[in-house]
Amino acid sequence: MAEETPGFSLLFKTSVMKLLNLLFVLCFLFANAQENFVKINGSKNVNSFQCINKKFKSEIGLYHFFDKKLPYIILNVKDFDCGNKMMTKDFQKILNAEKYPEMTIRFINFSKTQKNFLAVVEVKMMNQIKRYNIEFWIEDSKMIGRKNVKFSDFRITPPKKMGGMIVVRDDLDLLLSLSTKI
Questions:
Q1: Same domain, 73 and 118
Q2: Which end of the chain is more exposed for a tag (fewer CB within 10 A), N or C?
Q3: Which InterPro entries does the protein's record reference (predicted)?
Q4: Co-location of 103 and 164 in the same domain
Q5: Under 8 Å CB-to-CB from 71, ≥6 apart: which residues?
Q6: pLDDT tens track for 1-25
Q7: If DSSP codes are grouped into helix, strand and coil, which group holds residue 42?
Q8: Is the domain of 165 the same as that of 100?
Q9: 41 pLDDT tier (thresholds 50, 70, 90)
Q10: In the chain, count of helices (H) and strands (E)?
Q11: For 114-149, what is each residue's pLDDT tens digit?
Q12: Which residues touch 137 (CB under 8 Å, ≥6 apart)?
């Protein structure tokens, strides 16, 4: 029978413990990974478009909705991606990203209803502030809300392209998805 050397056994146990610690940390990070997004869906007379911003997260981990401190989200307008470079560039130009690089979403009030949740949300874009009542629901540990808004809510004239042959409609569908723990 081969004898176990004390140095090898200690080295093996230490390596296994380090590996287990690393796996624990990775599992914790993946379990708490934030999958937040703000999606803006719109349409033109010829097709539709979707611009999404996934590059933001809560400073304290998951978003909380039942404390006195409700979410305040700062979005970099240049982080919106519309699926192709031309559309993304046009979208950022419409929102005047050079002059107004940030858009903010601030929760003013949040309450439980019989089925879901109701929030008063303030959206600030291009120095224009608009408040909306938005219904939220929970899906896969995310607080999800949807609201129909308009470019004109923020004094933005929907653009036209190709001499008016392509017209962007005023109506937009705003979708918020924020990782939370209820």
A1: yes
A2: N
A3: TTHA0802/YceI-like_sf
A4: yes
A5: 58, 63, 64, 65, 105, 106, 107, 178
A6: 555 555 555 555 554 454 444 444 3
A7: strand
A8: yes
A9: very high
A10: 2, 9
A11: 999 999 999 999 999 999 999 999 998 899 999 999
A12: 115, 116, 117, 143, 144, 145
53 & 124 share domain: yes
Look at residue 10 in the predicted model and tell me its pLDDT: 54
Q: Which residue range(s) make up the domain with 8?
A: 1-31
In angstroms, rounded to a whole number, what is the distance separating the alpha carbons of residues 150 and 173? 8
pTM: 0.76
**10 and 51 part of one domain:** no
The answer to whether the CB of 154 falls within 8 A of the CB of 128 is yes
> Are residues 95 and 141 both part of a single domain?
yes
Joined tokens for residue 55: 């590059």
Residue keyed to tokens 């993304």: 88
CA 61, CA 90: separation in Å to the nearest integer? 33
Pair (108, 157) in one structural domain: yes
Say which CATH number the domain at 103 has: 2.40.128.110
